[in-house]
């Protein structure tokens, strides 16, 4: 039986185990997909030793960036953005990929229009790097917003978000876990009154299906999307990689 899995911490919110377990059952694939919760990425070598038949795993918060020093090789996207969410194991060696990028690009385009030419990206982690990579590819201007101090790379904090900036940036993307189960009541500290019908709010959170971030947008007539489609696309891309000669 083939073995795959997911590393991260915590994993109570995980979509991947249920998705792949159902996929394997539905398609008659003799394989398992297990959660491997680990608070520290330093546990990866022990995971490899304890699971010698493991062929690959996905990576979620908070290890998408810290996994990179443990990889034996990585594709160009991982090298460019500095984040990895998919590992393929061959002959005991780990090869890194990023399937978040294709998942985000294809799901974003579903509702993307010409007026969504300026974006605000909330968060600076591994998922944010995948988002920034795709926005650059699509020629969409963006500003990164963080809780941390402002930096020379153009990142600003929430206190610097003027109403004019919120109104003119018609694409808002939440890459943080704010609003995710079990903390559904949490919401990014934004002036949601600035949202109009031309806005498109995309939340990478998928559980709950409609976060408070998205609810505020929907109530004001904006286009909304959660991260569910992105997850399905990236999961299928991971499966393709695990079964390819890449």
Short summary of the structure?
With 246 residues, the protein is of the alpha/beta class. The protein folds into two domains: 2-98, 3-Layer(aba) Sandwich (Rossmann fold), CATH 3.40.50; 102-229, 3-Layer(aba) Sandwich (Rossmann fold). Helices cover 30% and strands 23% of the residues.
Describe this protein's structure.
The protein folds into 2 domains: about 1-100, Rossmann fold; about 100-230, 3-Layer(aba) Sandwich (Rossmann fold), CATH 3.40.50.720. The chain is of the alpha/beta class. The protein is globular. The chain starts with a strand and ends with a helix. The model has no long low-confidence stretch (mean pLDDT about 95). Helix 4 crosses helix 5 and helix 4 (about 100-110) crosses helix 8 (about 230-240). About 30% of the residues lie in helices and about 25% in strands. The chain has a 6-stranded mixed sheet with strand order 2-1-3-5-6-4. A 6-stranded parallel sheet has the order 9-8-7-10-11-12, with helices on both faces. The longest helix has 15 residues, at about 230-240.
Chain-wise SSE layout:
Layout: E1 2-8, H1 16-27, E2 31-37, H2 44-50, E3 54-59, E4 73-74, H3 76-81, E5 86-90, E6 93-97, H4 100-108, E7 118-122, H5 126-138, E8 141-146, E9 156-157, H6 163-168, E10 171-174, E11 200-203, H7 212-218, E12 223-225, H8 228-242
Parallel strand pairs: 1-2, 1-3, 4-6, 7-8, 7-10, 8-9, 10-11, 11-12
Antiparallel strand pairs: 3-5, 5-6
Helix pairs in contact: 4-5, 4-8
- Rg (CA only): 18 Å
CATH architecture of the largest domain: 3-Layer(aba) Sandwich
Terminal residue distance: 22 Å
Average pLDDT level: 96
Low-confidence stretches: none
């Amino acid at each position: 039986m083939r073995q795959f899995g997911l590393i991260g911490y915590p994993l109570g919110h995980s979509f991947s185990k249920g998705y792949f377990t159902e996929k394997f059952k539905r398609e008659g694939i003799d394989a398992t997909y297990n959660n491997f919760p680990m608070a520290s990425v330093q546990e990866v070598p022990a995971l490899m030793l304890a699971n010698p038949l493991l062929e690959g795993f996905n990576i979620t918060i908070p290890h998408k960036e810290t996994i990179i020093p443990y990889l034996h090789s990585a594709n160009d996207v991982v090298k460019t953005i500095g984040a990895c969410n998919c590992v393929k194991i061959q002959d005991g060696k780990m090869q890194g990929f990023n399937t978040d990028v294709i998942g985000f690009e294809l799901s974003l385009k579903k509702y993307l229009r010409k007026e969504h030419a300026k974006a605000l990206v909330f968060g600076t982690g591994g998922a944010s790097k995948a988002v920034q990579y795709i926005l650059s590819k699509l020629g969409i201007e963006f500003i990164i917003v963080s809780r941390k101090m402002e930096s020379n790379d153009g990142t600003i904090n929430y206190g610097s978000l003027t109403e004019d900036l919120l109104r003119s940036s018609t694409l808002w993307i939440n890459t943080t876990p704010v609003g995710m189960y079990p903390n559904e009541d949490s919401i990014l500290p934004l002036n949601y009154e600035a949202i109009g019908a031309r806005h498109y709010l995309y939340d990478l959170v998928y559980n709950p299906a409609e976060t408070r971030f998205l609810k505020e947008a929907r109530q004001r007539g904006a286009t909304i999307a959660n991260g569910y489609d992105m997850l399905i696309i990236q999961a299928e891309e991971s499966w393709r990689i695990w079964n390819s000669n890449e």
